[in-house]
Amino acid sequence: AKAEGRNTHRIFAAAMDAAAAERRELESDLRRAIEENELTLHYQPQVTTGGRDLVGFEALVRWQHPARGLIPPSTFVPLAEECGLIMPLGEWVLRAACREAATWTRPLKIAVNLSPLQFQQADLAERVLAILAEAGLSPTRLELEITESVIINDMERALSILRRLKALGISIAMDDFGTGYSSLATLQAFPFDKIKIDRAFVGHVEGSPQAAVIVRAVLGLGRSLGMGVVAEGVETPHQMRFLTDESCDEVQGYLVGKPQPIERFTRYIHGAGR
Ligand code: C2E
Ligand code: CA
Ligand code: CA
Ligand code: CA
């Protein structure tokens, strides 16, 4: 039994080594990916709930890995956050998204996700401004999506950065609303321009009376606080009807459009089409 235990231990240790090696490899791959432009952005439309007028796009990062194919952000954004690559990754995304939006002939919004770790840079607002200037994009075209963990980590610093960003004319959206553990305190701490209701709620307005009540409550909260409300993850006509009836401001989801390369949206971002 003792020998068997040792054996199990050896196999387990070998598996750990393999996982660590795989991780190191992915890490150095990711470093190269950022330098050599293997990252790419997909864009998901955000539209007004009633008229389905195009408001803008959310930029979502993907990694076009030479051997592994298209890797979703859920696998490499957390890795980038752990190994210190989130700063260069975040700047790459912001620069690429702003450059793209600067080519559009319609003044649509471009929404970019920021990692809470990017707020560790005290000069984040100045960095964002420099990227906007370099891209030739008006700050009023940019929306930054942040989760409440930003405010929880280092409240004073985060609030001061957010105030500077807002003063520049950049709008700030609170992402994944309702999934954190102090969402209401976060709303009290900072005047967000928009609240994005997490798709965990939106996806259940049909089957779950509780989810419907929560979505209605968030819409009421947004109205009372003067913040726009966006519903994420709208997949069915029923969900759309519910959100229209409840006067939700904007929607985003597979029903309207999946995240895709911007070329797929060319006819909507130029000229007067919608
Ligand atoms: P998120 O910011 O909440 O983005 C929404 C996610 O929901 C996206 O997944 C999008 O493809 C997906 N989605 C949109 N509509 C629907 C729908 O109708 N149904 C379903 N089932 N899903 C829908 P994605 O692109 O895989 O991104 C996942 C997460 O990765 C994002 O969640 C965000 O937290 C993070 N992420 C993506 N791009 C960036 C980035 O550039 N920087 C940072 N820091 N994080 C990013
Ligand atoms: Ca987002
Ligand atoms: Ca979200
Ligand atoms: Ca999310």
Order of helices and strands: HEEEHHEHEHHEHEHHEHEH
Quaternary state of the chains: single chain
- Beta-strand residue fraction: 15-25%
Bound molecules: ligand C2E, calcium ion
The residue ranges in which pLDDT falls below 50 over 5 or more consecutive positions are none
Portion in helices? 40-55%
Number of helices: 11
- By helix and strand content, what is the structural category? alpha/beta
Order of strands in the sheet with most strands: 1-2-4-5-6-7-8-9
Beginning-to-end CA distance, first to last residue: 71 Å
Mean pLDDT: 93
Q: Measured on Cα atoms, how large is the radius of gyration? A: 21 Å
Label the overall shape: globular
Q: Biggest sheet, in brief? A: 8 strands, mixed, barrel
The overall strand count is: 9
Short description:
With 274 residues, the protein is α/β, with parallel strands linked by helices. It has helices at residues 2-35, 73-82, 86-102, 124-135, 149-153, 155-167, 183-189, 199-202, 209-225, 237-245, 266-269, and strands at 39-48, 54-65, 69-71, 109-113, 142-146, 171-177, 194-197, 228-231, 250-251.
